[in-house]
Amino acid sequence: MPRTTTPKAPATNHPVLGRLPVGWKRVRLGAAVELIMGQSPPGNTYNTDGEGLPLINGPTEFTDRHPVKIQWTTTPTKTTRSSDILLCVRGSSTGRMNIADGEYCIGRGVCAIRGTEDTDTEFLSYLMQSVLAPMLRLSTGSTFANIDSKSIKSVYVLLPPLPEQRRIARILGTWDKAIGLLGQQISAKEERLRGLIDQLVSGKRHGAKGDKLPKGWRWKTLGELGSFTKGKGILKADISTEGVPAITYGELYTVHHVRIKRFYSFVNDGVADASQPIQYNDVLFAGSGETAEEIGKAAVYLGRERACAGGDVIILRPKDVNALYLATALNSSIADRQRLKFGQGHSVVHIYPSQLAELKVPLPPAEIQDFIASATTALDDELDLLRTKLAQLHEQKRGLMQRLLGGGKSSRQ
């Protein structure tokens, strides 16, 4: 586990917060940074030939740290400098951050947060992470959250002297290093799982040659394998931390992978009664997303407790098929290639039950379905343990950030 050192500074009385270390001040974020809200350039100026400035429109260009260059514009509008904090301010990726490693043009889905000579870039990135929750509470938008400039500027922060900022950034950086290494392990295992799924579902592990399936295997459409219904209700304001378990469409491409193993959202009985119940063996799809890759992502519910699905969740109730095998097949490249053709919409992409009904998957004999489901589940369980460990590291980092950025002392760990 990463070790930390204790930032030390004498305390002084603060009229609002009580005691703060000497040199710390409480200010609105707008007084500590320069904020540049993005503005999309004309669509006819976009190109993929590297002409002009690289363009960032949203999460598509974001990675773990620095954005990637996918498209450019010859008529830049709002631009960044190196070390600006980039923040997604629209859509389901609202709150996601990157750091600019050069000059970019930013579209309306992104803003740049620029520090002053009195702010350290790394510290500022941690400071922004710590204030995202209050900003999102102030966000607008019913389907997707949006953060406006007023919300960003109005949040209060504690700003220590520059040397203290750098010390805090170094401490938190040790946690990020551990998180990054574990993330790499998880990514490698996820890649291995995807490869295993493709090998098994395609029939290549059972003698398939080329596009021809093994003997006894058949191609089946989802419409032949079950019936579709849709989720309904469940607004953002309905979600709480207790009550009846619920699935939202965004969770199907962010936290649920093949199997729905735990719940992250809950609603009261009244909302659940007005929503769509789900049952054991149901396969759930994300009916909307910001990209074609997100739509149609599927996971199977193998629980017995009462649960429900919100709007833009598509539900398949399968028959005469191992539902876990089916969910596995729907996370294969065979299904991915078909889903990518179905996306409709520009800023928000949709897929419909009528389209999913035409999606084809290989259907092996029942005993092979069971084998594939079991084999992939074993590797996914290993992944689950690593994801739990990663979540614990993130939780430890959040606690440490709260102490350090709040002017408190860190414990030695």
Please describe what this structure looks like.
The protein is of the alpha+beta class and 413 residues long. Among the domains are: 18-160, Alpha-Beta Complex (Adenine-n6-DNA-methyltransferase TaqI, Chain A, domain 2), CATH 3.90.220; 218-363, Adenine-n6-DNA-methyltransferase TaqI, Chain A, domain 2, CATH 3.90.220. 33% of the residues lie in helices and 22% in strands. It contains ten helices and 26 strands. It has helices at 29-32, 121-137, 149-154, 162-201, 222-225, 269-274, 323-329, 333-342, 353-356, 366-405; strands at 11-14, 18-21, 25-28, 34-37, 46-47, 53-56, 71-73, 78-79, 85-88, 97-99, 105-106, 110-114, 156-159, 218-221, 226-230, 244-247, 258-260, 265-267, 276-278, 283-286, 288-289, 298-301, 307-309, 313-318, 349-350, 360-363. The protein has a five-stranded mixed beta sheet, with no helix packed on it. β1 and β2 (18-21) form a beta hairpin. α4 packs antiparallel against α10 and α7 crosses α10 (366-405). Residues 4-17 have low confidence and may be disordered.
